[in-house]
Amino acid sequence: SGQKVCYGAFKHSCYKLAYFQDLSRRVGFQEARQACEMDGGALLSLESEAEQQLIENMLQNLTKSGSGVSDGDFWIGLWRSGDGLATSSVCPDLYQWADGSISPFRNWYTDEPSCGSEACVVMYHQPTANPGLGGPYLYQWNDDRCNMKH
């Protein structure tokens, strides 16, 4: 599900947001990645502040449309393979884009990534949550366990 939206200005010219109100339809990171690939795409690499802003605007339009979008984070294509150095200070440097992009752009929430057993990345979308140290849990990135359902 999800509507494809295309723009000319970005390297990734088309985007598709998949949001499931029904919790039972939400999936883990690898399932999300496979679903994108079966659809001829890839989990999103966000390569610049401008692209991040574009996606935030798409999410805002989705929520404005009255389609009932509530709390629910979105998988993006950033992840960390292996966990040999997961707790060390180099951990943030181990994250890579699933589609092979080498973009260094990151938009972590305050105190993220927390590393450890959390190796796959979501874009926060929790409009009803009380703000934390880094402000509202909206659009910044958080590492999460790869088997969580988003």
From TrEMBL:
Q: Which GO terms describe its biological process?
A: positive regulation of axonogenesis
Where does the C-type lectin domain start and stop, copy by copy? Answer: 10-150
Q: Please give, as recorded in its UniProt entry, the membrane topology of this protein.
A: Single-pass type I membrane protein
Q: Which SUPFAM superfamilies match?
A: C-type lectin-like
A Pfam family name for this chain? Lectin_C
Q: Name one GO molecular function term.
A: carbohydrate binding
Its annotated compartments are: Membrane
Q: Name one GO cellular component term.
A: membrane
Alphabetical UniProt keywords: Lectin, Membrane, Signal, Transmembrane, Transmembrane helix
Which named protein is this? CHODL protein
> What organism does the record attribute this protein to?
Mionectes macconnelli
